[in-house]
Specification:
CATH superfamily of the largest domain: P-loop containing nucleotide triphosphate hydrolases
CATH class of the largest domain: Alpha Beta
CATH topology of the largest domain: Rossmann fold
Shape: elongated
Strand content: 15-25%
Largest sheet: 5 strands, parallel
Number of domains: 3
Strand order of the largest sheet: 12-15-18-11-19
Bound molecules: adenosine-5'-triphosphate, magnesium ion, zinc ion
């Protein structure tokens, strides 16, 4: 039995698929079996034409290709290369030793050109995990292949190159890491934000302690500007984080970074009209949603109350669990999803409630309905509620450039190294908190009607604040600052 190794992408993982070719007696047919979807069935046309273009005519025999395992639905066009090589091997036209142990993925054009596919990085990871030692991928995916560890990765741009290699007549090109000079993101910098000391401080705390932030303020106050710059103060990803970020990007079909060192944290800002499937993930086959695409980076939800109700509801669980699970009839798909979430909203429909200079034109009823869209439970998920005020034009002009992102990022990095592991139990949260601080917190919780979740979040944030100022014990000052970030718990009406 001839068997060629391929893989099937589901979510951000790849599963092994064995392409078996058999030439039997009987009528001349060319069949593909093993739950192939239409795109895979159409593979017959592409493979036949591509092989013909490189001088190989499929003999008019009884040819059956089986994609195993039979209970996994096969979609997409990435099986073309494996199918083509399985046929050639079944016809004794290539050397079998080279076929065994080699993952082959890629879509074939009618001309025999090998076209890039989505998910090469998860495919290579799965190949290594099942003991394969080599892989052949399309040259267009080389920048992704270069990130893989633990197996030899070759690339080709035409099926003829692969045939030549399998026949031991020519070499294939090995993929290499290509590091490019580190350009600092897209030029955004927190130094561009004038004034706004409180909001910038909140972003620093968020970055240091991985706390979700909700900005509330009038139009033009700089909420979007601030949120977009959170990414610039997050620490450089570790190589494990970089691998995870790159694997997700590969499954999504994004441009590959060429080297792990080039991987930057993602920033995703889905529009508020996006569907739950687009945000959480879904489809068939399952594809990652925005929460996964932002994993390891920042998910920005601008105009939070405008998001669909069902999206907000699902976000609640995701924000707490750090992963999503999508249930399908045949399988369960798990995907990592722990971005730092930053959201922005106006205090009311007109945007000026609580503004010292402009009058709010909304009826109390409208304000209440607007706020109700972001129900208590979602607001509760944010560790830091930050009221952002407008900086008047004159003050904007007169104030200096603020501290640049690079300096803040350094502090964030140092603080993260100092921080104890995330607290798991209430005892952990209460450890190293001084007595006065606890008393202050409990009084405030009673007086302001803060929920149990809010109480724990306050403690968490206070621990980060203490770590930022290199103190081991949480004091009243740290608790007092943390309490300032519960603006939306304090009062539903006025934000001061
Ligand atoms: N503190 C600031 N420093 C420098 N520029 C600012 C500042 N605040 C606002 N701006 C300028 O005002 C523009 C509008 O800010 P931004 O879009 O972030 O406001 P917003 O709070 O998101 O408003 P909206 O509620 O309408 O979405 C920014 O692009 C920037 O040019
Ligand atoms: Mg905005
Ligand atoms: Zn208003």
């Amino acid at each position: 039995m001839i068997e060629v190794q391929a893989g099937c992408l589901v979510g951000i993982d790849a599963y092994p698929v064995h392409v078996e070719a058999r030439i039997g007696k009987g009528l001349p047919v060319f069949e593909i079996v093993g739950l192939p979807e239409r795109g895979v069935r159409e593979s017959r046309v592409r493979v036949k034409s591509a092989l013909a273009a490189s001088g190989f005519e499929i003999p008019p025999r009884n040819l059956v290709l089986n994609l195993a395992p039979g209970d996994l639905r096969k979609t997409g066009s990435s099986y073309d290369l494996a199918i083509a090589m399985a046929i050639m091997a079944a016809c004794d036209s290539v050397q079998l030793e080279r076929v065994a142990g080699t993952l082959m993925i890629g879509e074939l054009a009618l001309t025999g050109e090998l076209r890039p596919v989505r998910g090469v990085l998860p495919q290579l990871r799965s190949a290594r995990e099942r003991g394969l030692t080599r892989a052949i991928i399309p040259r267009g995916n080389a920048a992704e292949g270069a990130l893989a560890r633990g197996l030899e990765v070759y690339c080709a741009s035409h099926v003829t190159e692969v045939i030549e290699w399998l026949s031991d007549r020519d070499e294939l090109e090995r993929v290499h890491e290509r590091e490019h000079q580190h350009e600092e993101g897209n030029g955004d910098d927190l130094g561009d934000v004038r004034g706004q000391a409180a909001a910038r401080r909140a972003l620093e705390i968020a970055a240091a302690g991985n706390h979700h932030v909700l900005f509330v303020g009038p139009p033009g106050a700089g909420k979007t500007m601030l949120a977009r710059r959170l990414r610039t103060i997050l620490p450089t990803p570790s190589s494990m984080e970089a691998t995870e970020i790159a694997t997700i990007a590969s499954a999504a079909g994004f441009d590959a970074p060429g080297s792990l060192k080039n991987v930057t944290r993602p920033f995703r800002a889905p529009h508020h009209t996006a569907s739950a499937a687009a945000i959480i993930g879904g489809g068939d086959p399952v594809r990652p949603g925005e929460v996964t695409l932002a994993h390891g980076g920042v998910l920005f939800l601008d105009e939070l109350p405008e998001f669909r109700r069902d999206v907000i509801e699902t976000l609640r669980t995701t924000m707490e669990q750090g992963q999503v699970t999508i249930a399908r009839a045949r399988q369960r798909v798990d995907m990592p999803a722990s971005p730092l979430v930053v959201a922005a909203m106006n205090p009311c429909p007109c945007g000026y409630a609580g503004d010292p200079e402009r009058l709010c034109s909304c009826s109390p009823d409208r304000v209440a309905r607007y706020r109700a869209k972001v129900s208590g439970p979602i607001v509760d998920r944010f560790d830091l509620h930050v009221v952002v005020r407008r900086v008047p034009p004159r003050a904007l002009r007169q104030s200096e450039r603020s501290e640049p992102s690079r300096a803040i990022r350094q502090r964030v990095q140092q603080t993260r190294e100092r921080m104890p592991p995330p607290a798991a139990t209430l005892e952990d949260h209460l450890a190293n908190v001084d007595g006065h601080a606890l008393q202050l917190l409990e009084t405030a919780v009673d007086r302001l009607g803060i929920s149990a979740r809010g109480y724990v979040k306050c403690l968490n944030v206070a621990h980060t604040i203490a770590a930022l100022s290199e103190e081991k014990v949480v004091s009243s000052a740290h608790i007092a600052e943390a309490l300032q970030y519960r603006a939306l718990d304090r009062s539903r009406a006025d934000l001061r």
